[in-house]
Design goal:
This protein is α/β, with parallel strands linked by helices. The protein has 7 helices and 5 strands, in the order αβαβααβαβαβα. About 55% of the residues lie in helices and about 10% in strands. A 5-stranded parallel beta sheet has the order 2-1-3-4-5, with helices on both faces. Helix 1 runs parallel beside helix 7. The structure holds D-altro-hept-2-ulose 7-phosphate and zinc ion.
Length: about 200
């Protein structure tokens, strides 16, 4: 196959995944944005986590909260649990890699905070343990996933929201996760402008 054709196929598959996601995720995206807006209006914060590309997404989200997205507004409280290498390496070394996010949530999580948990497979144990730790703190969870939802889907409780991208390719799911994150940031900005 010629390489130009591969490029065209990547674009076509990404567009197709996003169209399929729009068909099933409009309502849950609005629910997720409302959860973020309500938390920050109540003086709570958003914690985020994920592995690999999803760690990048967790940080992308927190930087848009802390700094800004597209509108001028106050900085919003968010912490990506993927950034402090001293903390991450010590938890992994002293306990296990599975606890790198949950241990931070045990220390930082408060009733009313929200966890943005990102996993394309839904099967990353450290992300799933973060969901359990968040529930133990009285936090709600926004789960960004894909494929068949993995074990993550079975951990979610009433009050949580699952944004599962209907695709099997990790790359296509990640590309759509970023779009979901940007939608949430934009909706939160709109809510702040009209109700904040
Ligand atoms: O970015 C990519 C692939 O596009 C990889 O770094 C990917 O994020 C890693 O393999 C992750 O460990 C996958 O974890 P998950 O999405 O299944 O939770
Ligand atoms: Zn990637």
């Amino acid at each position: 196959m010629n390489l130009q054709t591969r490029i065209q196929q990547h674009f076509a598959a990404s567009i197709d995944t996003k169209q399929k996601a729009l068909a099933v995720l409009q309502e849950p995206i609005l629910t997720a944005a409302t959860m973020v807006f309500t938390a920050v209006q109540n003086g709570n914060k958003i914690l985020s986590c994920g592995n690999g590309g999803s760690a990048g997404d967790a940080q992308h989200f927190s930087s848009e909260m802390l700094n800004r997205f597209e509108q001028e507004r106050r900085g919003l409280p968010a912490i990506a649990l993927t950034t402090d290498t001293s903390t991450l390496t010590s938890i992994a070394n002293d306990y296990s890699y599975e606890r790198v996010f949950s241990r931070q949530i045990e220390a930082l999580g408060r009733n009313g905070d929200v966890l943005l948990a990102i996993s394309t497979s839904g099967n990353s144990t450290n992300v799933n343990r973060a969901i359990d730790a968040a529930h133990d703190c009285g936090m709600q969870v926004i789960a960004l996933s894909g494929k068949a939802g993995g074990s993550m889907k079975d951990l979610l409780q009433a009050g949580d929201v699952e944004l599962r991208v209907p695709a099997d390719s990790t790359a296509r799911i990640q590309e759509t996760h970023l779009l979901l994150i940007h939608c949430i940031c934009d909706l939160v900005d709109q809510m702040l402008l009209t109700q904040g």
